[in-house]
Write a structure and sequence with these properties.
InterPro entries: Glyco_trans_34, Nucleotide-diphossugar_trans. With 325 residues, the chain is α/β, with parallel strands linked by helices. Helix content is 41%, strand content 13%. The protein has one domain: Spore Coat Polysaccharide Biosynthesis Protein SpsA, Chain A, CATH 3.90.550. Strands 2-1-3-6-5-7 form a 6-stranded mixed β-sheet, sandwiched between helices. It has a 3-stranded mixed β-sheet with strand order 4-9-8. Helix 2 runs parallel beside helix 11. The longest helix has 37 residues, at 19-55. Residues 1-9 have low confidence and may be disordered.
């Protein structure tokens, strides 16, 4: 009787991975798993911290490297060479350059012809002041404030810095006209009574009839770009407002609380005193000796001459700058 014999052991050992290789492979897998878990935890904590900071009203700060020598304030002046003499243009440039050099500001001189392609033949050329300011912001992306001032205005007090005269928080808080009808004399839409200087992105004046976009200060940022884009919207340009960009501004400030909530209305004579021949000044809005700016509003009308009206004040300004040297 035969019995099955147990299988014989092979004399050749089966192949196997060395102990050190198995350990190394397992270790790498463990490290990769730990790395993935750590990355996930850090990412979740980062996004949660930003979320709770945003919902609690705290600032979310991003470090921006501002190039040395960047001016805090840029003066924006729009010239229309087709309507102004070369001598007149040079006088305005002299006025702006002197003021900017005294306070470390920069100038952005814009040419109306560079923006006319955005308008049709029926739309007034005055509209292009809006893209001119937008252009200045793109050229000076790290500057904080932009002071747009009409080419028909002179800075008469070169010693006054914009910071001390307007922008310092305590000063701006004292200047803001709160609970004031946006469009005079009795618009039902009024400036916010609870507005503070830290909320402000746009500083402007009004005369006896409207908001006055010939002299305003705007702060660089997302809000200002939004505001300028809304103001220059094709629908507003095609609407045929009687006073073009001025009435468009009246409209959007009254109907868009997002814009009104960032606007400070200040007395006219702070940055926009009218000359004695200018129409529709606010009460007390006509130029007095010592005012920061004189604006020859409407001097380009047929019965008036900007050059003639500006000449005595330009001479007065020259004497002041000479005495300051």
């Amino acid at each position: 009787m035969q019995y099955a014999l147990p299988p014989r052991k092979s004399s050749t050992a089966p192949p196997f991975a060395p102990r050190t290789s198995l350990f190394s492979l397992q270790r790498r897998r463990q490290l990769r798993t730990i790395g993935i878990i750590a990355f996930t935890v850090i990412s979740v904590l980062f996004f949660l911290s930003r979320y709770f900071r945003a919902t609690s009203g705290g600032p979310i700060t991003t470090t921006i490297l501002i190039p040395s020598g960047t001016p805090t304030i840029v003066l924006v002046t729009l010239f229309d060479p087709d309507t102004l003499s070369e001598a007149y243009l040079q006088n305005i440039k002299n006025n702006r350059e002197d003021y900017a050099s005294r306070h470390g500001y920069a100038n952005f001189f814009a040419n109306a012809s560079d923006y006319l392609y955005t308008l049709n033949e029926q739309q007034p050329r005055s509209w292009v002041s809006v893209p001119a300011v937008r252009h200045a912001m793109s050229e000076y992306p790290y500057s904080t404030y932009f002071f747009f001032l009409s080419a028909h205005a002179l800075i008469m007090e070169p010693r006054l810095s914009l910071e001390r005269h307007v922008l310092e928080p305590k000063q701006l808080d004292s200047l803001m006209m709160k609970d004031q009808s946006v469009v005079p004399p009795d618009s039902v839409i009024k400036t916010f009574s609870h507005l503070t200087a830290k909320d402000v992105e746009l500083i402007i004046t009004q005369d006896g009839a409207d908001l006055v976009p010939s002299s305003f200060i705007i702060k660089q940022g997302e809000w200002s770009r939004f505001f300028l884009d809304v103001w220059y919207d094709p629908l507003y340009r095609k609407y045929n407002f009687a006073k073009a960009e001025k009435h468009a501004l009246d409209h959007i400030v009254q109907w868009h609380a997002t814009i009104l909530a960032k606007m400070a209305l200040i007395p006219q004579r702070i940055i926009n005193s009218y000359s004695k021949d200018s129409p529709d000044p606010a009460i007390g809005g006509t130029y007095h000796e010592g005012d920061f700016v004189i604006h020859f509003n409407g001097c380009d009308a047929k019965e008036r001459s900007c050059e003639e009206e500006m000449r005595p004040y330009y001479s007065m300004w020259q004497r002041k700058t000479t005495n300051l040297q």
